[in-house]
């Protein structure tokens, strides 16, 4: 298995030798995670985790809770 220059060459490359298969496996894994997570938790959970106010509504005064809402909305968009 030597080429014209005397270097050893492989007849079969490893699976992750280039970025195509690595990205393909990563995309399949991320899509599977997204589909399973949406089925288990639902879209409302994802929206709340991204944009929802994390302050405890029972222990936080209403004025501070309302003032924090735009901050968490902007952080979720980032």
Can you walk through the features of this model?
- By secondary structure, the protein is mainly α.
- The protein folds into two domains: 1-40, no CATH class; 41-78, no CATH class.
- The protein is built from three helices and no strands.
- It has helices spanning 19-40, 43-51, 62-77.
- The protein is elongated and about 75 Å long.
- The model has no long low-confidence stretch (mean pLDDT 83).
Rounded to an integer, what's the Rg over CA atoms?
A: 25 Å
Residue fraction in strands: under 5%
Structural class: mainly alpha
Distance between the termini: 53 Å
**Main sheet characteristics:** none
Count every helix, treating DSSP H or I runs of 4 or more residues as helices. 3
Report the principal-axis shape: elongated
**What's the domain count?**
2
Number of strands: 0
In the predicted model, the low-confidence regions spanning at least 5 consecutive residues are none
What's the overall average pLDDT, rounded?
83
Order of helices and strands: HHH
Portion of residues in helices? 55-70%
Short description:
This protein has helices at residues 19-40, 43-51, 62-77.
What distinguishing features does this structure have?
3 helices, mainly alpha, 2 domains, 78 residues, elongated
């Amino acid at each position: 298995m030597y080429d014209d220059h005397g270097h050893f060459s492989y007849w079969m490359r490893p699976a992750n030798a280039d970025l195509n298969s690595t990205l393909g496996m990563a995309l399949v894994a991320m899509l599977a995670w997204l589909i399973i997570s949406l089925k288990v938790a639902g879209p409302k959970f994802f929206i709340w985790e991204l944009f929802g106010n994390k302050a405890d509504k029972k222990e936080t005064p209403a004025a501070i809770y309302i003032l924090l809402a735009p901050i968490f909305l902007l952080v979720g968009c980032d």
